[in-house]
């Protein structure tokens, strides 16, 4: 399974939950997560996507640590089975209809 397939599923599931998963590109600032996930009621999280078994690059690990120290929710997903639980946590287990 490729990272692209996991990313597509994340975007699709986020939209199903009435949210958006914006591509996060920050010129001049390496290691930022791939997506900014925004869900209803002001819920936000950052998601780094990896192909199964692939590791974070050192700059990515440092950036994630930095963001978490500032209080942001940052997740690393390397399988489609993780998407639902990550979105639940970002949305603080809100009910989705």
TrEMBL record:
Keywords: Hydrolase, Nuclease. InterPro entries: tRNA_endonuc-like_dom_sf, VRR_NUC. Residues 1-81 form the VRR-NUC domain. Its cofactor is Mg(2+). Gene3D superfamilies: 3.40.1350.10. One of its GO terms (molecular function) is nucleic acid binding. It holds the Pfam family VRR_NUC. The keyword Nuclease applies. The keyword Electron transport does not apply. This is VRR-NUC domain-containing protein. It comes from Selenomonas ruminantium. The lineage of its organism: Bacteria, Bacillati, Bacillota, Negativicutes, Selenomonadales.
């Amino acid at each position: 399974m490729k990272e692209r397939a996991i990313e597509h599923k994340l975007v699709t599931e986020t939209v199903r939950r009435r949210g958006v998963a914006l591509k996060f590109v920050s010129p001049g600032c390496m290691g930022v997560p791939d997506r900014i996930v925004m869900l209803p009621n002001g819920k936000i999280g950052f998601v780094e996507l990896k192909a199964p078994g692939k590791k974070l690059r050192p700059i990515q690990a440092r950036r994630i640590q930095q963001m978490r120290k500032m209080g942001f929710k940052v997740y690393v997903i390397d399988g489609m089975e993780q998407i639902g639980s990550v979105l639940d946590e970002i949305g603080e287990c809100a009910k989705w209809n």
